[in-house]
Amino acid sequence: MKINFTKKQFKTLLDLAYLGEWMANSTRSDDDRFVDYEELFQYICSFAKDMGYEDLVPYDRELNAYFPTQEYETQLHPIIDNNDDYVFWEKLTANLAKRDLDREGAMYNTLDDRFRRLCEIEEQYEREFEENGLANLIIAEGKNGSDKE
């Protein structure tokens, strides 16, 4: 199989490969990494010189691998940072809402009723975090962390 890319399409592919490999492996230890993703990223990088992007991912002969330059990473990390921020607030909101729903201990006639209540609590947290960020979040000392907020 052969796939042809324009220079612009290749740059987009390179960006996506970097972002995907970063997402998959940046938090993993060396022995827990997705090697297939690393290998594919290296393979894509091997075409960078032919496509005029050697300056973004130069080849290191000593390490026998391609490495993104600091400048290239700096271009792409705002995408990662925006995603991280979004996921942080979504997870925090969802986890706190679920905790609060469980603490209420209410019985619901249907799963839809329970889901509606969960959504109400999530909306309260979303408003709070949009208006105040973490300014009003307090960690309360309690037995076994059961009273932490």
Q: Give the topology string: H per helix, E per strand.
A: HHEEHH
The largest sheet is: 2 strands, antiparallel
Task: Give Rg in angstroms.
Answer: 23 Å
Euclidean distance between termini CA atoms: 55 Å
Distinct helical segment count: 4
Poorly predicted segments: none
Indicate the proportion of strand residues: under 5%
Shape: elongated
**SS-based structural class?**
mainly alpha
- Beta-strand segment tally: 2
Average of the residue pLDDT scores: 95
Helix fraction by DSSP (H/I, runs of at least 4): 55-70%
> Strand arrangement, largest sheet?
1-2
Blueprint (SSEs and pairs):
Blueprint: H1 7-25, H2 35-45, E1 59-60, E2 65-66, H3 70-104, H4 111-132
Antiparallel strand pairs: 1-2
Helix pairs in contact: 1-2, 3-4
Which tags fit this structure?
149 residues; mainly alpha; two-stranded antiparallel ribbon
Summed up, what is this model?
By secondary structure, this protein is mostly helical. The protein has 4 helices and 2 strands.
Report what the structure shows.
The chain is mostly helical and 149 residues long. The protein has 4 helices and 2 strands. Strands 1-2 form a two-stranded antiparallel ribbon. α3 packs across α4. The protein is elongated, with a radius of gyration of 23 Å. It starts with 6 loop residues before the first helix and ends in a 17-residue tail after the last helix. The mean pLDDT is 95.
